[in-house]
Amino acid sequence: MKLPTLVLLACILSLFEPMSLVADTGSNSGTVAETLDAGGYTYIRIKESDTWIATSTMEVSKGAQIEYSGGSEMLNFHSKSLNRTFESIWFVGDVRVSGQDSSQPTPIAESHGTMHDIIPKNTAIAAPASGEIEKLENGKTIEEILSDPAAFDTKAVSLRARVTKVNADIMGRNWITLQDGTGIAPSNKLIATSQEIVPVGEIITATGVIISDVDLGSGYHYVALLEDATFAK
């Protein structure tokens, strides 16, 4: 076992795999009582419910009426960028100022190098098509890594890929599925473990150490994991 700290993970995963780790907020509206911008996200306190929500960086003013839907509630969430802990906060993907054209996309922040505060969207998404994602210069593809994982064992690698699924906070880390359009199923995805969390659907650069032939027991076997990964847009 190359990952002694994960010997009980199979039991934990058997509990988490079939269930969703997010809950949908439904459709809501309210008055903006306070806003904070940090880490590529805008944090908004809703006056009527005294609820905090967060979304990709957007322009919104105190007193504005907003509409929002969908999202993930995080309890006791600590924002490193703000150095603040929120007892409860909803990370939502669809926020707009009332009366604003809903076809206008929510502005997204420019690259901040790493993304510590980002929370995934609600669901997993489809894998990118072959050739859709350009290979990272001096990086690797998932097909290259998984075709000979032993050759990369304990080595640091970087790759460009899309986040297609996130399982958050299992055994003290987040389990992030990466796909780049290379490889043939089931050898077309790489699981990264990280203290960071990134939004589903985002195309990112991931950097970490490959650990090959990881057997967690109870049928959970990985030909390779990208351990201690960090992410950049």
Textual characterization of the structure:
This protein is mainly β. The protein has two domains: 4-19 and 122-232, Nucleic acid-binding proteins (OB fold (Dihydrolipoamide Acetyltransferase, E2P), Beta Barrel); 27-97, Beta Barrel (OB fold (Dihydrolipoamide Acetyltransferase, E2P)), CATH 2.40.50. It has three helices and twelve strands. The protein has helices at residues 9-16, 142-147, 149-152; strands at residues 27-38, 41-46, 51-56, 65-69, 72-79, 84-91, 94-97, 156-170, 173-179, 190-194, 203-217, 220-232. The two termini are 33 Å apart.
Q: Give me the secondary-structure category.
A: mainly beta
CATH class of the largest domain: Mainly Beta
- Mean pLDDT over all positions: 78
Give the number of helices.
3
Number of strand segments = 12
Task: Give the strand order of the largest sheet, numbering strands 1, 2, ... along the chain.
Answer: 5-6-3-2-1-4-7
CATH-assigned fold name of the largest domain: OB fold (Dihydrolipoamide Acetyltransferase, E2P)
Q: Which architecture of the largest domain per CATH?
A: Beta Barrel
Low-confidence stretches: 1-25, 102-123
- What sort of overall outline do the alpha carbons produce when their principal axes are compared? elongated
Q: Largest beta sheet, briefly?
A: 7 strands, mixed
Beta-strand residue percentage: 35-45%
Distance between the termini: 33 Å
In helices, the fraction of residues equals under 10%
